[in-house]
Amino acid sequence: MVNIIIAILAAVMADIIQLLPDSVANQIAAGEVVQRPASAVKELIENAIDAGSDKIQVIIKDAGKSLIQIIDNGCGMSPIDARKCFERHATSKIKKAEDLFSIRTMGFRGEAMASIAAIAQIELKTRRHEDELGTFVQIEGSEILLQEPTSTAPGSSIYVKNLFYNTPARRNFLKGNSVEMRHIVDEFQRVSLAHPEIFFTLHHDGNEVFHLPKSNLKQRIVHLLGNSYNQRLVPVEEETSIITLKGYVGKPEFAKKTRGEQFFFINNRFIKDPYLNHAVLTAFEELLPSDSYPLYVLFIDIDPSKIDINVHPTKTEIKYQDEKSIYAIIRSAVKRSLGRYNITPTLDFNQETGFSQMITQKAPEDITPPQISFNPNFNPFATEQKPYKESTFNRFTNAEQKGIPQNWSTLYTIAEAPIALQEQLPLAKETPQVTIADQTVEKVSKQQIFQLHNRFIISQIKSGFILIDQQAAHERILYERFLKQLNAHSGTSQQSLFPQTVDLNVNDFELVKELLPEIQSLGFLIREFGKNTVVIEGIPANIGSAVNEKELLEQLLEGFKKNRSHLQLNKLENLAHTMAKNAAIKSGIVLSVEEMNRLVDELFACQLPNTSLHAKPIIITFTLDELNHKFENK
């Protein structure tokens, strides 16, 4: 009987832990390594670089969803290696754990090929230079369908077709072609910047996007970003016992309102590091406003044993042993380079001449020393004229003898200004009652309205007064206006007297093309003008004419990208939100009485007059009862 019970319990409590099949394990790994087509492009290009290629061609169709083809002239693979490279953890880079801390190659984990093969249909043609015949391998969903000899050029050519064909849920999460292609361009730019000695091309749907001949770093930057960048670059070079730093930063006057031209490389590997990015930005202190982003392409060479690159599946994050020292070196090196090339706040950015050139324009003996003129009869203690009028303050201070300047008493007129201005203020229009946050704000005639610290608007109502945040109010007004225009395609334009040509990076140019119908609905008049260039011929009519068209477009693109990653907004809401933030009046702007009245009237006409774009209050109501309580006047 006992044996029967034990047998039953054993059957019920059978082992439940099982080893995953390789195909399932590969698909799980693919979720970490291959997040989108750009991930596969990056891994395959890096494999081609590690193979010793000096010529790499990238061919993309349907933003990588239909086809990713990488052709290189590297070392190629033997028939056995051609098959083995698709196995998990198959790598030629490491043999023991210690090797992880001496890696200088791009790939090393041996997961990329297996992960891509698990979610795509792959064809590989490869041949070593010393072999007469190459190898053809066909794989689908981790299963090898065919392997046979073939005639092919030395190197490797890999076709990745129908990415995520067997994981439709993941394929459905991919974005539109323009978005996915921007990610591919990002990865392509990063890898090609790190290897200017390699010839690269990128084709998309039959069109050549990039043609990058072998060159040095400066030429590679110019080929990628445009010929105009040739005069924008300031070299940076610093060698220490900790790191060797080299590369380029952009001159401050060419900084943009959009990110996307900031590149850090550790041992030729692109990394994302906000800490090191901050080091560069602090070097530009007092040279740039806080919402501008300078170009930089900086390479750090460091002992591999001092860093850990095995902390993230995409290998874009790194840990350092001495990050504070690296921060200080980068900051001082960039600052020194900006100073060496006379990029300081006191210089005219339109002039490229150095100090030595400026001095040598005249012979030293021709330089005229500055002259100082003065009035020998001036007596600072003369009392012929009183420095100020007699006032009640004289009973407290001997101000006249202490030489207080004229008109000092105007410092105190702010306390009397509201009373003095009451008779000058025009009456606000009568408007109906508006319910705000379950309170009724009575807008009455003969309304008094003032501006407080050029930031808030104080408006008198029957029950007390309201305090309005002028910037938040204008943002709300513009947001609802722009959103209405986008939905109705009714934006009006004001023609620019001089159309402005704007050079964009590839990603921003693609984003403009994606958003062009909506941007035109806002009132922009924009057309393509060659490669990665647009011409702005007009801007929305209701944002004023004293704006810089280029900055307005750059701010629109940067805000749109930022909102897309931080806010849950659809395309139209995102554009309206971004335009409103950029075009609204800011705190510190002086408003006339007419402007304040108009702002208040337009705010009360909004659907959500009390809520800012950041879900904060726009209007705060103070009642007479509250004021009486504050003064204990019950």
Q: Would you give an account of this structure?
A:
With 634 residues, this protein is an alpha+beta fold. Helix 7 runs antiparallel to helix 14. It is 32% helix and 21% strand. The chain has four domains: 191 residues, Heat Shock Protein 90, CATH 3.30.565.10; 120 residues, Ribosomal Protein S5, domain 2 (2-Layer Sandwich); 36 residues, no CATH class; 209 residues, Ribosomal Protein S8, Chain: A, domain 1, CATH 3.30.1370. A hairpin with a 2-residue loop joins strand 19 and strand 20.
CATH topology of the largest domain: Ribosomal Protein S8, Chain: A, domain 1
The share of residues in extended strands comes to 15-25%
Distance between the termini: 90 Å
Shape: globular
Provide the CATH architecture of the largest domain. Answer: 2-Layer Sandwich
Outline:
The chain is an alpha+beta fold and 634 residues long.
Quick tags:
4 domains; Ribosomal Protein S5, domain 2; five-stranded mixed beta sheet; 24 strands; 634 residues; globular
Please give the structural blueprint.
Elements: H1 2-12, H2 22-33, H3 37-50, E1 55-61, E2 67-72, H4 79-84, H5 112-118, E3 121-127, E4 134-140, E5 143-150, E6 155-161, H6 168-172, H7 177-194, E7 199-204, E8 207-212, H8 217-225, E9 233-239, E10 244-250, E11 262-266, E12 269-271, H9 274-283, E13 296-301, E14 307-308, E15 319-320, H10 323-340, H11 355-359, H12 417-421, E16 434-436, E17 439-441, E18 449-452, E19 456-461, E20 464-469, H13 470-488, E21 493-503, H14 506-522, E22 525-528, E23 533-540, H15 549-566, H16 571-583, H17 593-604, E24 619-623, H18 624-630
Parallel strand pairs: 1-7, 11-13
Antiparallel strand pairs: 1-2, 2-6, 3-4, 3-6, 4-5, 7-8, 9-10, 10-13, 11-12, 14-15, 16-17, 18-19, 19-20, 20-24, 21-23, 22-23
